[in-house]
Amino acid sequence: MSPTKQILALNRFEASEGTALAPELAERVAKRQATFGASSVLFYKEPIEMVRAEGVFMYDAEGRRYLDVYNNVPSIGHSHPAVAEAVARQIAVLNIHTRYLTKPVEAYAEKLLSRFPPPLTNLTMTCTGSESNDLAMRIAEAATGKRGFVVTRAAYHGNTQHVTAISPSSMKSKPVPDFVRVIPEPDPAQAPGGDVAAFFANNLQTAIDDLEANGVGFAAVIVDTIFSSDGIFADPPGFLKSAVDVAHKAGGLFIADEVQPGFGRTGGGLWGFSRHGIVPDVVTMGKPMGNGFPMAGVVTRPDLLSLFCEETGYFNTFGGNPVAAAAGSAVLDVIDGEGLIDNARDVGAYFKANLLTVMGNRRDIGAVRGAGLFIGLDFVDDDGRPDQGLATFVINAMKERGVLIGAAGLWGSTLKIRPPLCFSRENAEFFVETLKAILADR
Question: Do 125 and 295 contact (CB within 8 A), yes or no?
């Protein structure tokens, strides 16, 4: 069995499918496609025009409200007033690049770095998660003198040229390049005896050996610490320790991509890697860092950053501007002040338990996995195989009932459940009841 769609194509509007749109909507979509060309991406079989959002809800042009269980960017809630006020206040005073001393940037760097374990004491700010992962790769290459990377089968780490190369889920027709090795996701169902740690570490070792045997050399393994694009694999806590040991023994680095699991989403601390009791060599951040304001960053050890800077004069014009620092600082304050990590843990556990109850009454749900407010739900057919068609049906049916959700996984058969961290038990109950009604009616 092989994947039928790339992840970035899942839930994408396709005019070629012939969906009948209302005249005004059809005209809008046609103009959009004429303007953006082949790069135009819209969600759902019938695209939505959004006009505003607040907390866990989004509102379309007709005033219809949707529960957002889709978007990771506004992690502390859409249009959070603390972030809006911080950005407005700072942009009215000063917004420049990083070659001047500015107290907002310095204060933010100290506040953020205080939330990392030693020796992760250096921060480089960027604008996107893609830039962060690109920089992390360059740091690894400079530190090791090698150019080989190991990633999982459906990984997505961004869209620069370098980072697309380590994002198999972005590849439509081309194979990954010769400096990349792809290994299976840490799925308990695939692991002999259920030993996820050994399964993942052994596959990593095999990939490293192949890179070395072919003269490429091993620079780093890079993982999204909850394996979100692979279908969400969080457990058991600690299973990544063995992979870190394998990477270090081979002379390479372990890069933790925290763009999606970071900033409290897993409910086990601020970072996904915290659940595993590990200290990565490099940590990358993006999307949730500014709750919608474009900012990102890389945190690493001073020795690694120094090696990179000895060979490259790195500078990022917009990364680390005072407005980004104001947004990022507000996000950290809200996470602390509103108890969002605890909320992710408690509501996430309640949400997952309710989904497991639904699973117990159905043959078309194969698994429910996750940590905190990051949960994956697998759809399967009568033979237990991944059912992408059912996932697509449910996604669009939920949209019609006021819930926004997307898909993930190698087969595109996993619901990717990823709401804002202010999600409540009542929100979870609405999602579960909506899902149950849709499955009962199909």
Answer: yes
